[in-house]
Amino acid sequence: MREKLEAYLRLSKVFSTHQFHLYLVGGCVRDTLLKKEFTDVDLATDATPEEISKFFPDVDLTFSKYGSTRLTFDEQKFEITTFRIEKGYGDSRHPTSIKFTKDLKKDVVRRDFTINGLYFDDRFILYDYVKGQKDIEKHLIRAIGKPTKRFIEDPLRIIRAVRFALTLDFEIENKYVKAKKGLTGAQRGN
């Protein structure tokens, strides 16, 4: 993982040269705070896929309409997601509307859990707008925003919450459990 983090630091300098920011986000930040090894490094940026392609012409733009690009840099593969605001989830998995933003605070509200809504910059300064660090300390899985809304947006988040609870030995916030029960009851017509 050291090679990947070193490549991230070099990649971040390239983004900075072009007046953009590049952050570590999600599980790798969470696991670093938990002092656990991690295998995946996800990145977030204020550069749009089109802007990234100007200084990395070989970037994979297959999922660029969702703000997601793939890039091999210094022999390391990265998935880089543009900060975005999402609305509507017609298929209960993918947003029907995406608007790119330059605001990290607007990007975090679309994420699933507070423990995954954490960012490190290239100096490893923590950006935490959702009290994720406190939830890590409490060993608590808590939704960003309303739990029911998070489930409706993507029902797989229910499974992710359970998986994180089991693998991290965390508790799921009571509101989340109630939202899951309410959602399941509503689906059965109860």
Describe this structure in words.
This protein has 190 residues and is an alpha+beta fold. The chain has eight helices and ten strands. The chain has a six-stranded mixed β-sheet with strand order 3-4-2-1-7-8. Strand 7 and strand 8 (126-128) form a beta hairpin. The radius of gyration is 17 Å and the shape is globular. The N and C termini lie far apart (48 Å).
Features:
six-stranded mixed beta sheet, 190 residues
Spell out the blueprint of helices and strands.
Blueprint: H1 2-17, E1 22-25, H2 27-33, E2 42-45, H3 49-55, E3 68-73, E4 76-82, E5 84-87, E6 97-100, H4 104-108, E7 118-120, E8 126-128, H5 132-138, E9 140-141, H6 147-153, H7 156-168, E10 171-172, H8 174-188
Parallel strand pairs: 2-4, 9-10
Antiparallel strand pairs: 1-2, 1-7, 3-4, 5-6, 7-8
Helix pairs in contact: 6-8
Strand content: 15-25%
Number of strands: 10
Strand arrangement within the widest β-sheet reads 3-4-2-1-7-8
Uncertain regions: pLDDT < 50 for 5+ in a row? 186-190
Our count of helices gives 8
- Distance linking N and C termini: 48 Å
The gyration radius over C-alpha positions equals 17 Å
Specify the structural class: alpha+beta
Shape type:
globular
Helix residue percentage: 40-55%
Largest sheet: number of strands, sense, barrel closure? 6 strands, mixed
Mean pLDDT: 89
Order of helices and strands: HEHEHEEEEHEEHEHHEH
What is this structure, in a nutshell?
With 190 residues, the chain is an alpha+beta fold. The chain has helices at residues 2-17, 27-33, 49-55, 104-108, 132-138, 147-153, 156-168, 174-188, and strands spanning 22-25, 42-45, 68-73, 76-82, 84-87, 97-100, 118-120, 126-128, 140-141, 171-172.
